[in-house]
Each structure stands twice: as C-alpha cells, then as structure tokens.
Write a structure and sequence with these properties.
The complex is a heterodimer of chains A (788) and B (321). With 788 residues, chain A is mainly beta. Chain A contains six helices and 49 strands. Chain A has a 22-stranded antiparallel β-barrel. In chain A, strands 9-16-17-12-13 form a five-stranded mixed beta sheet. In chain B, the strands form four sheets. In chain B, strands 1, 2, 11, 13, 14, 16 and 18 form a seven-stranded mixed beta sheet that branches. A five-stranded antiparallel beta sheet of chain B has the order 5-4-8-9-17, with no helix packed on it. Classes of the chains: A mainly beta (788), B alpha+beta (321).
Amino acid sequence: MLLIPDRRKILTYLLVLIFLLTSFYYQSFLFASDLRRSSISGFVFDTANGESLIGANVFISGMNYGAATNTNGYYVITDVPSGKHVLICSYMGFKDFRKDIQIREGQQLVVNIALESQPLQAETIEVIAESLRTAELLYKKPISRLSITPMEIRQMPAIAEADLLRTLQNLPGILPISDYSSELYVRGGRADQNLYLMDGADVYNPEHAFGMFSTFNTDAIKHVEISKGGFGAAYGGRMSSILNVTNLDGNRHKFEGTAEISLLSAKATLQMPIKKTGSISASIRRTYFDQTVGRFIDDVPDYYFYDGHLKAFFDLNPNNKLTISSFFGKDILNYDFAAQASNSEKLHYDWGNMTGSLRWTHIFNPQFFANMWLTVSAFNSKFELTEITEKNELTDWSVKGQFEYAFSQKIDAQFGFEYKNLSTLLEQDSPGGIIDVQRQRSHTVGYFLVEWKPLAGWQIEPGVRYNFFSSDRTFEDWEPRLSSKYRLTETISLKAATGRYYQYLNRIPRPFLADIWTSANSYYGSSYSDHYIIGLLKEVAGNLEFEVESYYKTYRNIYSLKNHFMDLQPEGFDARGRPVYKGSKGLFDVGRGNSKGVELLLRKKYGSYSGWLAYTLARTEYTMDGVNQNRAFVPRHDRTSVINIVLNTEIKNAIRELRDLAYKSENSRWLFGLNFVYSSGQPITLTSSTYLMSSFPDREYDQILLYPTKINNFRLPPYVRLDVSLTYERQFKDILASSYIQIFNVGNRENVWFIRYTNLQQKDKIEQEVTTFNMLPILPSVGIRIKF
Amino acid sequence: MHIFSYLIKIIKRQTKVGIGFVVFLLLYSCGKSPIEIDERTYEPKIVINGFLYPNQPVRNIKIARNFPVGATINLSEAEIPDAKVTITDVVQQKIFKLEWNNISKTYNYWLNDLKIEPGRSYRLDVSAVVAGKNLHASSTTTIPTNLGFGIDPSQSLGDTVLYRWRDEWGNISYPKIAYRQGATDNLNDAQFFALSLTAQDADLTTFIKNNPFGFDLEKTLKENEYFTIEQIQYRDQWARPEKAAADHVTYFELYWFNIWFYGRYRAIIYAGDKNFFHYYSTHNRLMDMDGNLHEPLFDIEGDGIGVFGSALADSIYFYVK
C-alpha cells in the first residue's frame, strides 16, 4: 500500500515528461507547417524606455484580424491575406501606431512596434475611433479581470503613501476586513484564497506593519491585473482570485529614477540600460519612524520595515529574452519592556519575504511562443520573548512553463506545466509546549486551453487543469474550465465563465504574528470552489466602460481555525513534561459555503478626469461543522451593498474637458483625487447577556463574562469614508517634482470595527458600558516625489 | 443606455453639480452612526457554577441569573434562591434535592446518603424563573478516577522561591510543582490538568515593582478604572494527560509572568472532567482577533450556561520573595 503514492508520483512525472516531449516534438512538426503560413508578429514597447507593453491591441485596419500583446508584450496575427494593409497598434496612454505593410503569401513579417507615450490627460483621439477601441478592449479582456495602472495607484488617496492592495480594495467585489488591514476578500472568499504573483513567483504573507501595508512597492510596478474569478486553466492554486504583478524591466534607453519621501517611508527607484542588450531596474524603500519619532519618544517600539526590488532584462536575440527578478522585504521590531530595569524582558520579532525568478522567453517560431520560469519564494519570521521563541518558515521552489500556439486566426492554444516544491517549518518553544512541524510538499500541474473563435463575435475558451498534490497522502484533481464571449452589438459584449478551482494550502491567521501556512493532508482534504459568472460589458458615450457581472460561487472543505486547542493532540511530551505538537489534527473546523452577487462598474480610464463608480450587491454564507450549531452564518467580511467612487482629475484640463475645450499642456498642474466608500454594515456577533462566574472553584473572585448571541447576527452601522488628495506637479527641465497632501477619512467618520464591553465593579453593583472600537480616524499626510 | 448619456450631459453642462456632489460626499462622510443594541438580544439563562469532588459532600453549587448587556448588575440579585435544584445519581436513578444556604448563597446537600464516587455520573437539574420566564437546565458530569493523582511535595519547589532566580549558568530557572497524573487511560479519567495559582498577600505593597515587563500596578489602577488587582492576583496554567504510567511524575513549570506579588501563594492542581475542560478552555476566550465574539463550549442542555463539572484536587503552598 505504501508504494501507491510513489507509483502515482512517478506516473505524474512521466505524464508531464511525455506532455513536454510531445509538445516539443509537435512544435518541430508545427514549425514545418508554420513556414507556409503568413503572419505578422513582434513586440510592442514604449519608445521612451523600451518597456514592453502588456495588453496592447494590434490589428489590421478594416479587417477582423488582430491580437493583443501577452505579458511579454508579444503579439502574433496569423493567416494574414497577402497584399497591402495598414497595421494599427493602440494602447491606453500612447499615440496610435499606424504603418503601411505589404505581406506575401507565406511571409512571416516581424514588426516590432514602438509606441510614443502621451499624457493620459491629453488623449485627443477622435470619438468614433475611440469608441470602437473601448468596445474592443472590453470584449478582449477576460471576464472578471480588472487591470490597474501604477498611475491610478499613485493617484488614489492613501494612508501615508500609495499601496497596491489598499487600492484594489476599492474595486467592486474586493473588500477589506477593516481599515487596519491591507488583505483582500474577493467575492466572498477569504484572504488566503488569493494567489499573489510577482514576476511569476508566488508571494506568501505580502504584509508589512502587521498587515497595515502591503509589500508591493508601487514605484517598481509596471502592470497589475486581478482576476476575481472564472479565470482560465493557466491559473490555479487558489479558490478566489489571482493577483498578477509585473515589475518594471528597466529603462532600455537612458538612466531614469524616482525618489519619494512620505510620512511613512523614503524610497527610490532607478532604471538604466545595460549596453544595448538589456536593462536593469532597482528600488528600495525604508520606513524612518524609528530614526525620527522613535529617538525622541521612549515608549515607541523600535520598529521599521524595508523592501527592495531588482530586475534585469536581457534581449539575447530576437527569439530569446531573459529576465531576472528579485524582491526582498523585512519588518523588524524590538521592544524593551522596562528599559530602566536590569532584568528587562526584551521582544524581538522580524519577518519578511524574498522572491526570485528567472524567466526565459523563447519564440520557437512566430506562432509558437514560450515562457519558462524558475522561481523561488521564501517567507520567514522569528519571534523571541525570553520564555517564548518561534521560527516560521516557508520556501517554495517552482519550475513552470507556459506555451502559446496560434493555430490560426480562429484557434489559439495555451498549455503549460508547473512543478512546485514546498517546504514549511514551524518551531515554537514556550513554557506551554513545543511545536515542531516540518513539512515537505510537492504540487505538479499540467494545463491546456484553447481560444476558439467559431464565428465572428464569438469566442469560446475550454480548458482543463490537472493537479497532483503530494503531502502525507496524495491528491489528484481535475479542474474543468470554460468561458465564452459574444459580441452582441458593436458596443455590447456578453461573457460567461464557469470552472472548478482547487486549493491545497490553508492559512492560520494570527493577531500580530505572521500567518502560518498548512496544507491538505490525511485529516484535511483539498478545498475547492465552483464559479458561475455572467457579464455584460458596454462602451458608453465613447470612452466609458460599463460592466455588469453576476456570480455564484460554492465552497467545499473550507477550513477555519478552531477557537480553542482542545482537539489538538500532542505527539508526546518532552523531559520537562511539556506537550510536543507535530500535527494539525484538531486544528480546524471544516465547512462549506456560497457567495453570490452582482457588480456594476462604470469606469473612465483616461482623459483629464478618470476613475470609476462601482456598486456591489453580495451575500456570503458559510456553514462550519460545530460552529453556530451547524447553521449557516454570514462571515465577518460579508457586506450587502458597497459603493465605491474613485475620481482622479487634472483640475484645469478637467474643467476644459467638461466644457469641450481642447487639452492644454502646461509646466505645472494640480491634481485632485477622491475616494469614497460606502458599505452596509459588517456582521458581528453581539452579546446576548452578561453573567458572573469564577474560572476556578477555589476563586472567590467572579469575573464578568459575556455570552454571545448567534454568530454574526447583528449588522454594525454602515461604513462611510471619504479620502482626498491634492498634488502639485511642476516640470523643471528633466525633473518632474510633485508634492502632495492626502487626507484619509477626511470627514473623521467614526466607523465601528467592533463593540467593547467594559465593566466598572463597585461594592454592590457593576456598571456595564457598551462602547465601540473604531476604524482609523482622520489621517493627513504629506509627501514629495521627484522623477528624473 | 440613454441614462448614461443623460448623466454625462448633466455633468458636462453643470460643473457645479460635480462640486456639489463632492461636498455632499464630504458631509455624508462626517460624524458617526449610533449603534442601537436593544434588549431584544437578551435571552434569560440560568447560570450554573458547580463542581463535584469524589468522596466529598455536594457543596457550593451556585445558581444565578444572567443580565442584559449594558444593565447595572445589582450583585444581590444575581443568585437565584428559589430555584429547584436536584442531583441525580445516573446509575441508581436516585434524585437528591439540594437546599439553598442564605449565608454562602449556594445550594448544598447536607445528608449522608449521596456519595460522590469516582467513575460515576451525576446529573444536575435546575428549574428557575429568570426575568419572568420559566427555565430549565441540566448537565451531567462523570467523576474522574485517576488513581494515584496528587502533588509530590518532595520533588516540587521548596517552601520559598526567589523571584526569577538564575541557575549557576545564569539562566532563569522556573519553579516546578511535581505531580502524578495517576492512571489516565480510562475514558472517565481527567481530560486535563489545571493549575490555579493565588497570590494570597496580593496588594500594592507586595507588588513586584522591579518586574521585567515594566508593569506599574499603582499607575494602572489609577489610570484604568476597569482594571482590578484580581486580574493579576489569580493566574492559571493547564496541561494535557500524558497517558503515562500511574506513578509517572510530571511538572507544572511556573511561568514568571504569572507571578506579580511577593508573599504567600496557594497552588491547586485540578484533574478535571470534560465539562470542566470545555468550560476552562472557552468561557473567557471569546474574542477573535478582529474583535468578534464566538460561542463558548458549555455542556449544559436547555436554558443554562456555565459549568457543572467534577475534579480531583490537590494543593501546595509556597512563598515568593
């Protein structure tokens, strides 16, 4: 019996190997046939810095032939009829590229396209052309996927400085749990159901400052996409969402940099070419609270964080590119409980991430494109407080390949593989016991999907993803995926998607300490979710995007950390009689659930004023065995209605645009940002009553205890918040200087996080007071940013 | 989709509309929304707090009521003197009625015909009127056997312990209380072992001011009206059954962060049953990390909360200086 998992493992490896060999064998066959087909292919990049552009549209004027650039900025248009054509490329924030081309039958024309940027506010494209393009963009983007630009992230009013995850919390269907957390709750899923990818590497626990800020340095970001569900077979591993962050490759033409100082941190990003073959970019950020305020106020803990990013891009030859990317971040906290005392207890806690990825991009032939990655992602934390020590580590080594093949104008295929080796370690030594957990897991994935355009205005994408997860037992799971699009009219698209999504990792959330990741095993099986999504997308009034999406999700085998550790059994006891824990049996409650909702989004991406207006109506219910008497309950992150209004304006030109006057470029400008959130009340468990009791029979002292009502059966008042920012930008020759003031929660709204019950004990009576613990108050901040 | 065109036309024509809208958002986002928790959330309950010990009479079973949240709790109204309280020997099906004692404010059984024996189960039934509502609650406990359970003074800390004393290598040492869990392989044996520590001389004069956590009791009592000295006077630790031989000696190592006062200490080790374990583990650990509450685990059926448990107990005294 013991041999069965090994056999399965070997079988899986063999399958992957056969799959790869077959792929390469067929590529040579395809290569031969591809030589007879005409195509136009190439990369699209920014003239100013040589950065490849993701999602640019390349098409032949007047014909239904076109393609969008992939994550490498590569496009291919196949089976182009011979003759003279006009090739057009368009991308938001860039001037249109137009080129007359002539193609012969069987010719494989390579056209690398350099787009010239223009300020987003200066878009002066004719309304008719623009109208078509907006509708086309909406049609092309996958269902439930939203992208956000670094500029949008920077312009969003924030706490102290721009933060990627906090920006995403303002998109429909994405919620925070509180002002104190940058975690994402996507369409009713929990925070550990999101996969964070940075340049292809998974990021675990992407948090600074106990979750207040995310680890993503916005100055290093080139492109961000979040898929809220219904994603294709190329992605998996999490049940709710995929956040894909691509960092800057670096300026390939000249030295460029930015420096910024905010109330939170100082940071700098530098980019430069490496001869003619590549580029490099680097960024670093560090908080300086410990070096300023901390030096004058004794009680402030010695705390700081830093993070950095380094990325190099090498254009080896027209068919081979190499990218090396690395990220590191660390939080360090030291606290002396009684600095004056000789025997003072000291606390040390540090935690951080490191990721590295090596990506090789290879073009076998214009139709056959491949990306291969070797990635590593590591998280570690160390806690020391005289009687308690803890080490928490996770390391993820992955090899993955993603292949794209353009069979024809009607059929594109993608296939790929991933092998992930995960090791985790948790060592805790405290007077109460020992935790000694070391785990080795592997996850092998193969996937295949086809983009099929059977008729004009139709696209169907069936796909399948195979998982082989090995822990103390093995899991083999198939994930079918299907999505489709239909162009109902020139401006309206209909979309639908469904699929199954498996997850093998679960997170143990902890207050003030880094979360611990556990995996599916003999006691806790794999979790999965089924998604059903339909959507309507419409271009409105030329350059507005309007989307309506409705979704229904089910969850099976979701895990929630038990409220007590009574069921957790030790493996044994050490010489001091302390229990030694090595397993996870008894750690979780098991449950199921569902989420449903409707999201409306009206978005303007460019112009002198941009932003979005979003409304979400949603409901999530979980049922956990042994919780709430096994009855369904709404989780704490459920919100019935959410309204988000985000507005970014360049004030003078916005007024001009509203009055239909021409855009006017000036050396200086004022930018105004606004972010408004309304969400209906957060569920909370109320106390039904209080009572007096002692904890032990020998104690005369009675505590005042609370007895809760049914779980989360009460809704807090609605959450309302308005943030504003004002930025002044001025161009001095080659330097663009901007200074900004941001006010988070400008109305100083007292939004409630939870309810507190305090008791004032007197001689013969107890006065009980019900108060609230509120979210963040008004938080103004200022900063300066220089781009050179 | 004419509505969009209409809205955009309005905005384009009326810049003031946009400014007005921003001002509206600003005003709307000021202030606070009150939380109204009305008394409808109140559910009357019988609060049970009672323990049985093998070979000892049934004493000090507390029967009280709960109160609505935010109400002033008049301590003299907490106990219920007119409840009907009985204990049933589950095997013999004999029922024993407990009597109210007006001095101790507890229910007791004074006759000698009720024997509490290890390994046997006893059910407590309570009927009472709380907030005008007739309520009934019952709970059954099985007395742990744990033959051989007890503290071993000869291997425990001495009579006197030096606060945070260090060994010859300079490491902080922890005082130990040695005890035998006794036989723990029977289903009826104790589900956990708890150490209840009481600083018997706790007051401001005996407080350890030079503690390494920088905690200042006098300042805290002055600044925080909700803090009471009892919150650090009574401390506890717990351990799991080791499933070892009955004569195996194991230890409670006292955490120094449980010692806040110089002077006399009483340490009682309980070998508790399932009900006691559930109550101990959940009754005051209700708050999640996000401030939300979750339900405690009480082994009481009907309209009751609290604990009706059983335990073996042994004690030791020492002095901290």
